[in-house]
Amino acid sequence: MNKKLTLLDRAFGITETDNNPKHVAGLQILERPEGASDSYVDDLALELKEFNKGVAPFNCVTIRFLRIPLWLKPQKKLDMDYHVQVHQLDDVTDKKQLHEFVAKLHEERLDIQKPLWQAHLIKSAKGNQFILY
């Protein structure tokens, strides 16, 4: 069943442009559990991708009329390869490299034909830390 968007949600959708994106994100620095294999982040991504039947609002696309977002429409199945992505940096503790990489990820607008979220797992060639962005 479709759900009507609030006035605030509509305002975000109406005012978003390539030069003025409205999406927000968080960055979490995490550590592999003690004894976890080097494939831990890849295995985690595969496990997350198994959850392809999301719960509202995470399984909803925005229905628009004349570019105005009006409704959230639930989807039966999600494209988890789009929603969960894995990347690798040389060293995620290199804050300059990490921030530049995340800034490039954040520049991309989300695909409005899909539910408006993504999870990026960023693994490190060095150390046990990884990033959830």
Q: Could you walk me through the main structural features you see in this protein, from its secondary elements to its overall organization?
A:
With 133 residues, the chain is an alpha+beta fold. The chain has one domain: 2-Layer Sandwich (Chloramphenicol Acetyltransferase), CATH 3.30.559.10. It has four helices and seven strands. The protein has helices spanning 7-15, 40-49, 80-83, 95-107, and strands spanning 3-4, 28-31, 60-65, 68-74, 84-89, 119-124, 129-132. A four-stranded mixed sheet has the order 2-7-6-5. A three-stranded antiparallel sheet has the order 1-4-3, with helices on one face. Helix 4 links the parallel strand 5 and strand 6. The longest helix has 13 residues, at 95-107. The model has no long low-confidence stretch (mean pLDDT 94).
Per CATH, the architecture is 2-Layer Sandwich
- Proportion of residues in extended strands: 25-35%
Oligomerization state: single chain
Question: How far do the termini sit from each other?
Answer: 30 Å
Give the averaged pLDDT, no decimals. Answer: 94
General shape: globular
> What is the makeup of the main sheet?
4 strands, mixed
Q: Segments where pLDDT lies below 50 for 5+ residues?
A: none
Query: Biggest sheet: strands side by side, in what order?
Result: 2-7-6-5
Number of helices: 4
Question: Percent helix among the residues?
Answer: 25-40%
Secondary-structure element sequence? EHEHEEHEHEE
Number of domain units: 1
